[in-house]
Amino acid sequence: MTDGLERPGVRADEHAPKTPCWSCGSCGDEWPCATKRTRLLAEYEGDRAMLSVYLGSCLAAATEDLRAAPVMSLQDRFIGWLPRGSRRS
Ligand SMILES: [Zn+2]
Fold first, then answer.
1. What is the pTM of this model?
2. Is residue 69 part of a domain?
3. How far is ligand 1, taken at its centre, from the CA of residue 89, in Å?
4. What are phi and psi of 68, to 5 degrees?
5. d(Cα 89, Cα 73) in Å, to the nearest integer?
6. 42-72, pLDDT tens digit by residue?
7. SS3 content of the chain, % helix, strand, coil (to 5)
8. DSSP per-residue string spanning 19-55
9. Is 59 part of any domain?
């Protein structure tokens, strides 16, 4: 018996980060996982600057949580995947 509706906030496929390990709560990959990256790009389409700000805050929090991880690899993981060339003339 399902009504076909998903309830916001309790979706199993939300792909939200688990802290302090920063793995994906849905698929277990390192967050942001491939699915989450695709969703973030869609969610922040046309507002890439806000996405950078959001990921930057996640990176800052993850850097606190994952002190053993090299900072450069965390930057790659959180921000390095963003497509370049957001500036249009
Ligand atoms: Zn995921």
1. 0.79
2. yes
3. 35
4. -80, -20
5. 32
6. 999 999 999 999 999 999 999 999 999 999 9
7. 45, 5, 50
8. TTTTEETTT-SBSSPHHHHHHHHHHTTT-HHHHHHHH
9. yes
Total domains, the chain: 1
CA of 47 to the centre of ligand 1 (A): 22
With contact defined as beta carbons under 8 Å apart, do 74 and 21 qualify? Answer: no
Contact of 16 with 8, CB cutoff 8 Å:
no
Query: In angstroms, what is the span from residue 12 Cα to ligand 1's centroid?
Result: 10
Angle at 50 between CA 32 and CA 69, to 5 degrees: 35
Strand, coil or helix: what is 18? strand
What range does the domain containing 60 cover? Answer: 32-80
Between the CA of 88 and the centroid of ligand 1 the distance, in Å, is: 31
